[in-house]
């Protein structure tokens, strides 16, 4: 991870900040954006000099490959402010690694490490006032890459745009989250792009999720595409199951996003002496545990969602509500994780990154 690069990214100053028009107490996730954005173009085989410009619409040719073939990847990150007004990122090296892994799978050229870190640092120094203090407040960062070459031939683009936009955020889900276990639709298949943060992975979930929404479920827990017997991830979150006192989560494979929060939860569980098993989790064992009152918790983990308890779920015609525990694992992980993210506790894993 680069901590000492000096790129001197050029900044085109805004005329006036929009910050006074923002109601920070009533934020809908991802609706409000800050004053600046980071932009870096790729053409003639290289990433050009990045710059930071006022947040504004961009102009792209209607034939650009991103519109026709979905050649696009993204990341989700958050910046946190501590009581001393210092700003922190959480494991940004993981996001950097993953965006390039996603890019590789989508035939997009890798982005240089110093551009990524210097871009984030310069942008966050400019946008510091947009980061509210306090647990749950953050600045959600959305790095993304799109294919901009005009022309509808089905081949990788020669031109790209890497950008970072920032949105002040509170909770991703407001209210209780209930999920449906997928029986028919799939999110990803073996050998596909499920592990990548490819834009199309999210588009492919919208229709089945809207059917689940109409039945009162906020999300789907996706099962493996070939048998639908094993639980994988929830699309906006990785998922954990607590059966008795054992914590279970599916191993990474080429269908599941390698979540940064997921891997942090596994490390925190091991550190706390919680019995954690990373293995395939069958629908059958979860249903049986629920029927025997042994399924204590299901929760999701993700950058946007943080740790989100699932209050109930459905599979076929069966519906289950989960108990509300005083000493839930979800509560423990959320607090322990946030203490690290907001510089409220020791960072013994070295996960914090100071801006
Ligand atoms: C994130 O957690 O950052 C994600 O990318 C999920 C997104 C769909 C909001």
TrEMBL record:
It catalyses: L-leucine + 2-oxoglutarate = 4-methyl-2-oxopentanoate + L-glutamate; L-isoleucine + 2-oxoglutarate = (S)-3-methyl-2-oxopentanoate + L-glutamate; L-valine + 2-oxoglutarate = 3-methyl-2-oxobutanoate + L-glutamate. Its EC number is 2.6.1.42. One of its GO terms (molecular function) is branched-chain-amino-acid transaminase activity. GO terms for biological process: isoleucine biosynthetic process; L-leucine biosynthetic process; L-valine biosynthetic process. PROSITE patterns: AA_TRANSFER_CLASS_4 (PS00770). Pathway: Amino-acid biosynthesis; L-valine biosynthesis; L-valine from pyruvate: step 4/4; Amino-acid biosynthesis; L-isoleucine biosynthesis; L-isoleucine from 2-oxobutanoate: step 4/4; Amino-acid biosynthesis; L-leucine biosynthesis; L-leucine from 3-methyl-2-oxobutanoate: step 4/4. The modification N6-(pyridoxal phosphate)lysine is found at residue 197. The keyword Disulfide bond does not apply. Its cofactor is pyridoxal 5'-phosphate. CDD domains: BCAT_beta_family. Belongs to the class-IV pyridoxal-phosphate-dependent aminotransferase family. Acts on leucine, isoleucine and valine. PANTHER family: BRANCHED-CHAIN-AMINO-ACID AMINOTRANSFERASE (PTHR11825:SF44), SUBGROUP IIII AMINOTRANSFERASE (PTHR11825). This is Branched-chain-amino-acid aminotransferase.
């Amino acid at each position: 991870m680069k901590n000492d690069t000096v790129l001197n990214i050029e900044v085109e100053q805004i005329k006036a900040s929009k910050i006074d028009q923002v109601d920070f107490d009533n934020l809908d996730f991802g609706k409000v954006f800050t004053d600046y954005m980071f932009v870096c173009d790729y053409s003639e085989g290289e990433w050009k000099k990045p710059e930071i410009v006022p947040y504004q619409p961009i102009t792209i040719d209607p034939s650009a490959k991103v519109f026709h073939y979905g050649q696009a990847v993204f990341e989700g990150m958050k910046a946190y402010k501590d009581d001393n007004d210092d700003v922190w990122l959480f494991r940004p090296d993981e996001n950097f690694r993953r965006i390039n892994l996603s890019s590789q799978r989508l035939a997009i050229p890798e982005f240089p490490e110093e551009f990524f870190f210097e871009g984030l640092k310069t942008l966050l120094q400019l946008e510091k006032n947009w980061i509210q203090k306090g647990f749950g407040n953050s600045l959600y960062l959305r790095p993304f890459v799109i294919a901009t070459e005009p022309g509808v031939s089905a081949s990788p683009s020669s031109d790209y745009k890497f950008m970072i936009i920032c949105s002040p955020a509170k909770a991703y889900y407001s209210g209780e989250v209930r999920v449906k276990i997928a029986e028919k639709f799939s999110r990803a298949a073996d050998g596909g792009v499920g592990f990548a943060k490819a834009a199309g992975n999210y588009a492919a979930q919208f229709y089945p999720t809207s059917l689940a929404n109409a039945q009162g479920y906020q999300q789907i827990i996706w099962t493996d595409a070939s048998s639908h017997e094993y639980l994988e991830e929830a699309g906006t979150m990785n998922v954990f199951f607590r059966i008795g006192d054992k914590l279970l989560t599916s191993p990474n494979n080429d269908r599941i996003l390698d979540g940064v929060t997921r891997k942090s939860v596994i490390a925190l569980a091991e550190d706390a002496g919680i019995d954690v098993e990373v293995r395939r989790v069958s629908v059958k064992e979860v249903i049986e545990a629920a029927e025997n009152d042994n399924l204590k918790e299901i929760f999701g983990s993700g950058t946007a969602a943080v740790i989100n308890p699932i209050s109930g779920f459905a599979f076929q015609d069966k519906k289950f509500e989960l108990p509300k525990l005083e000493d839930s694992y979800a509560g423990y992980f959320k607090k322990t994780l946030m203490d690290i993210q907001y510089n409220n506790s020791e960072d013994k894993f070295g996960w914090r990154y100071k801006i």
